[in-house]
Design a protein that fits this description.
single chain, mainly alpha, three-stranded antiparallel sheet, 9% strand, DUF501 domain-containing protein, DUF501
């Protein structure tokens, strides 16, 4: 396979990915190693770890067979996935969901994250549904999606994704974090 040109999402505005790079053959190999299967619908690399390894892939809103796939940002690094899974197991999703019902400012910012996620996905392909991913905008269903979203679009868009990223200090200390390094 050859490199693909990443989609131009600059016109979407706040919440669009900050740095999309073409998916290379080496990236496809890395995705396959990390995910345990070939990537489906990969449009671009939306975030690379400090070691330049693809950690978040931007996926097409429809898989190659036409199946709707509302998860726009997919966390592909197995080490990062494992760390986020540990946070989920510790009950962080439940705590965050509870906060949404008692912190109106947080709920408003989380709804903005949902709206910008939806706008970005619709710029690629409008699925005709207002479902984003990760439980947005009313609950926290998947920290993996929220972390991937925050890493792809940068800080300040998804408050709960940013909080989850902040709980991963070992991943950002410059130490090898990816299992295959």
């Amino acid at each position: 396979m050859t490199d693909q040109t990443p989609p131009d999402l600059r016109a979407v505005g706040p919440g669009a990915p900050v740095d999309l790079t073409p998916v290379t053959d080496a990236d496809r190999v890395a995705f396959t190693e990390q995910l345990g299967r070939p990537p489906r619908g990969a449009l671009a690399v939306a975030y690379r770890c400090d070691h330049r390894v693809p950690a978040v892939v931007l996926t097409a809103p429809r898989l190659p067979d036409g199946t709707p796939f509302p998860t726009l940002y997919y966390l592909s690094c197995s080490t990062l996935n494992a760390a986020v899974s540990r946070m989920e197991s510790a009950g962080l999703m439940r705590e965050m969901t509870e906060r949404l019902s008692v912190e109106p400012d947080l709920a408003e910012k989380y709804r903005f994250a949902h709206d910008t996620y939806l706008a970005t996905r619709n710029a690629l392909d409008d699925l005709g549904i207002a479902v984003t991913a990760g439980g947005m905008p009313d609950r926290v269903k998947c920290l993996h999606v929220l972390v991937a979203h925050s890493l792809a679009v940068g800080r300040g868009i998804n408050p709960l994704g940013d909080e989850a990223v902040d709980l991963l200090p070992e991943y950002f200390r410059g130490e090898p974090a990816c299992a295959h390094l």
